[in-house]
Amino acid sequence: MERRLSDDDRAFQAQMREIFTSQVPEEIRDKVAHGRELTKDEIVTSHRALNEAGVAVPGWPVEYGGKDWSPLQRHIWTTEMQAASVPPPLQFNANMVGPVIAAFGSTELKDRFLPPTASLDIWWCQGFSEPDAGSDLASLRTTALRDGDEWVVNGQKTWTTLGQHADWIFALVRTNPDVKKQAGISFLLIDMTSPGVTVRPIQLIDGGHEVNEVFFDDVRVPADQLVGEENRGWDYAKFLLGNERVGVAPVGAIKRRLADVKTWAGSVANGSGTLLDDPLLAARVAELECDVMALELTVLRVAGGSHDGKPDPASSILKLRGSELQQEVLELAVDVAGPMSLAWGEVAADTDGALPEWTAHATPTYLNYRKATIYGGSSEVQRQVIAGGILGLKG
Amino acid sequence: MDFTLDNEQKALRDAVRDMLAKRTPVDAIGAADHDPELWQALAEMGLLALPYDEGAGPVEVMLVAEELGRARARSPYVDSLLAGLVLRATGQDDLLEALGEGTALVVPALNEPGRSWTAAATTTHRADGDRGVLTGTVGPVAYAEAATHAVVLADAGCFLVEKPPVQQSCLVLEDTPATLLTDDLAVVASARNHATVALCAEALGAMQAALDLTVDYLKSRKQFGVPLATFQALTHRAADLYVQLELARSTVQFAAMSLADDPDSPSNSQLASRTKVVVGKAGRLIGREAVQMHGGIGMTAEYSVGHLTARLTAIEHTWGDTRQHLGGLARSLGDHRTVEVL
Q: Taking the complete model, does pTM exceed 0.80, yes or no?
C-alpha cells in the first residue's frame, strides 16, 4: 500500500494539466466552467485539440492513436481534464464505437473508420435504445435483412444523443429473429445521409434539444459495414458498455461543481452571514465532500486492481454512486440558488444580467442530470448487476 | 497510489484470521468483558506491540483491527492503541513495553457523563506533593474494570492513573493520584486520529461479516416457497449495503496509508473525521438492514448478526459520532476548495 503518486505519475499529472490548460481554447473551457451549452463547432475544436495533442483516444490500440497508460494514469487523465473544464473527447467516438471497431472490426474497417473517428471527421451517434427496448435492450426490434451485398434496415431508435450533429450511427439491429433474443443481434455502421434515415428531435424537461428519435425506412447499408461477425452484436454491445472501468464516475466534474457550489453559497446573504454559515447547508456540503472522497478513492482502488481487461462488476458501484452524487451536487446548487432558481431558461442565462449567471443554469442543469441515473444502465440495473454478479443473489 | 497489500501484509492478515477462526466469539450483551485469554493470544502474536514496531504501522494495525471486527472478537485493541500512542509520545517507555507484552492494560478515558466528545474536560487536577491528584467522574470507559492504567483527560492536561476506582464503567476519581503525561492536547488528538482509523477498520470487518451473513441468509431462507433472493425488494437493498461497504473500505485503506505516509500531518484530523463519517453512515445502514433482512432471527441473542449491529452502534459512538465529526468538517469548509487525495 502506498498513498503517494510515484514521481512518474506526478510528472504525468503535471503534463496532463499543461496539455489541458494550454491546448484547449480558454473560451471553450470557460463555457464549460459556467455550465453553458457548447456548439457543435466548439465540441469539434476541443476534441481535435486533444487529438492533436495525442490524448483524445488513450484507450485505443497504440497503432491507432492509443496510449499504453496504466489505469491510474487513465484516471489522472480524466480527472485533470474535468478539473480543467475541458469537454471530454466525444464519447460516441472515443469510448464507444472506436474501441468496438478496434477490438472486433476487420483491418479494412479499422483503417477506414478509426482515423476519422479519432479526429472527429466522422461524428458518431449511438443507435441502441428503442421505444420498447430500454433496460431490456436485447428485445430491440429494428431489423436488418440481407439483400445481395446490402443490409436493408427498418425500425426506430430513440434517445439518440446529439444525433442531430451526427454523420454516422452505430446501431444494434436484429439479423436473426428465430433465435434467443441476444443471439440474433448485429452491430451495423450506417451513414446518416443514407436515403430513408429520418432524425426527429425530442425536447427534454430542461427545454434543451439533446436527444432524438431516428427512423430507418428501407435504408440500404453495404454489407461490409457490419462489424465483426453477424449475430455477435450483443457481445460487442456488452463490451462497449463494460469496457470503461475508469471514467465511468465523473469525479473531477463533481468535485469542480461542488467547489463552485461552495463559492456560490458563500456569496448568498443569509441572516447576518452567508448560506455557507448555515449549519444545515454547511453539513450537506461537508457530507458530500466525504461521499465524493470515498467515491474517488474507490475509483482509484478499482483502477489499480487487476482484472485482465475484463469488465469489472465493481464498475457498477462507480456508475451507481457517481450518478447519484452528481445529482446530489446539482440539487444542492438549486437549493443554494434558492429564490433565484425560479428564473431560468435561455432568457435568464445572461452573463451581464440582473441575476448571477449560475442561478439561471441551476434548475435546468439539475433537471437535465436526472438522466444520469437512467442512461448507461439505470441505477436499478446496476443494483441488479451487483446483487447477481457480485453477491450471487439470483432468484 | 497503490491499494494492494504486499506479501508480508497478506501473511499478517491471514495469520490473524486463522488464529481468530479457532476461537468461538463471546457474544456479550452490552459492553464486553475483558477476555484475558484472547488478549494473551494477541500479545503472543506480537499484535499488541505491532503499532510501535519499526517496519509496521497504521496499515498493519488496520489489517489486525479488521480481522477482529470480522471475527466478533471483542477486545480493547483499538483502545489500547490510543493509550499506547499517548504513552509513546510522552516517553512512557516502560509502560509501553508492558502494554506490548500484554502485562499492562492501558485504556483511554476521554469523556465525561453528561458531556459530548467536544466538551472540555471538567475533571480537576490539584497539586499534591510531587504527583498531583485528580477529582471528577470520567467515562463510561471501555474495559475499565480490567485496566491496569487509564490515560485520563482533565482540565490541566492528560494524566496517567494507575488502578483507577471504577463504578458502572466510569472512573470515579476523588483526589486520586495521577501523573501528568502532557498538557499538550494535540498529543491526545493525534493518538485519537490514529485510533479512530483503526476503529473504522474494525467496523469494516464487522460490516463485512454482517453483509456476508445477510447474503447467505437471503440465499438459504425460503418463504412463499422460494428463496428470499428472489425478491428485488431485498436484493437491491443488499446491493446498496455492498456499495456502502466498498466505499468505506477504500476510505479506511486510504486513511491508513495516509497515516503511514505522514503520521503527524496536520490534515490527519480532517482525514480521521471524514473516515469516521463515511464509516459511521455505512455502519448504521448495514447494521440496521442486516437485522431487518434476517427478520425475527436477527433479533435473537443466540444469532450473531445483531451482535455485529450492536458493535457497529458502539463504534459509531466512540471518539465522536458522525454528527460531531460532520460538524467539525462543516465548520472548516472554507479552508479548502476541494478535497484532494492524489
A: yes
DSSP 3-state assignment of B336?
coil
The whole-angstrom distance between A58's CA and the closest CA on chain B is: 20
A337 falls in which pLDDT band (50, 70, 90)?
Answer: very high
Q: Do A4 and B59 touch (CB under 8 A)?
A: no
For residue A371 the three cell numbers come to 438522466
| A267, B82, B83, B130, B238 from B89: Cα distances, Å | 44, 11, 10, 22, 43
Q: Is the ipTM of this complex over 0.90?
A: yes
Which of A3, A276, A291 is the closest to B254 by Cβ? A3
Note the pLDDT of residue A312: 65
Please state, as a whole number, how many other Cβ atoms lie within 10 Å of the Cβ of residue A207: 12
Q: Contacts of residue B280 in chain A, CB cutoff 8 Å? A: none
Which segments of chain A are extended strands (E)? 124-127, 143-147, 150-157, 168-174, 185-191, 197-203, 209-222, 269-270, 273-274
Q: Does A14 touch chain B (CB under 8 A)?
A: no
Residues with Cβ within 8 Å of residue A68, at least 6 apart in sequence: A62
pLDDT score, position A344: 83
Q: Which residue has the cell 452571514?
A: A273
Q: How many other C-beta atoms are found inside a 10 Å radius of the C-beta of residue B244?
A: 24
Summarised one tens digit per residue, pLDDT across range A37-74 is: 899 999 999 999 999 999 999 999 999 999 999 988 99
The pLDDT of residue A310 is above 90: no
B61 exposed, middle or buried (CB, 10 Å; 0-12, 13-18, 19+)? buried
Would you call A198 helix, strand, or coil by DSSP? strand
- Which residues contact residue A134 at a Cβ distance below 8 angstroms, ignoring those fewer than 6 apart? none
Residues in chain A closer than 8 A to B234 (CB atoms): 393
Order of strands across the sheet that contains B157-162: B106-109, B149-154, B157-162, B179-182
Q: Which pLDDT does position A353 carry in this prediction? A: 80
Is A244 part of the annotated catalytic residue set?
yes
The full DSSP string for A93-151 is IIIIIHHHHHHHS-HHHHHHHHHHHHTTSS-EEEE--BTTBSSSGGG---EEEEETTEE
Q: Name the DSSP class of B90.
A: T
At A395, is the pLDDT very low, low, confident or very high (cuts 50, 70, 90)? confident
Q: Is the separation of the CB atoms in B87 and B148 below 8 Å?
A: no
CB-CB under 8 Å, A255 with B338: yes
Q: Is A246 left (phi over 0), alpha (psi -120 to 50) or beta?
A: beta
Q: Would you list the DSSP string of B144-202?
A: TTT-SEEEEEETTEEEEEES--EETTEEEEEEEE-EEEES-HHHHHHHHHHHHHHHHHH
The helix (H) or strand (E) run that includes residue A231 is none
Could you tell me the three cell numbers for B226?
422460494
In the predicted model, residues of chain B with pLDDT beneath 50 are none
Query: Which residues partner with A133 through β-bridges?
Result: A130
How far is A383 from A390, CA to CA, in rounded Å? 10
Smallest CA-to-CA distance from B204 within B161, B255, B159 is with B255
CA dihedral sign of residues A26, A28, A33, A36: positive
The alpha carbon of residue B4 and the mean position of all alpha carbons in its chain are separated, in whole angstroms, by: 23
Q: Which residues of A225-245 are buried (b: 16+ CB within 10 A; e: fewer)?
A: bbbbebbbbbbbbebbbbbbb
**∠ Cα B167 B172 B175 (to 5°):** 150
Q: Which residue has the cell 448487476?
A: A385
A383 contacts B236? CB cut-off 8 A? yes
In this prediction, residue A306 has a pLDDT band, given cuts at 50, 70 and 90, of low
In 3D space, the residue among B228, B239, B278 whose CA is nearest the CA of residue A378 turns out to be B239
What does the angle CA A266 – CA A267 – CA A272 come to, to the nearest 5 degrees?
A: 75
Cα–Cα dist A225/A239, whole Å: 19
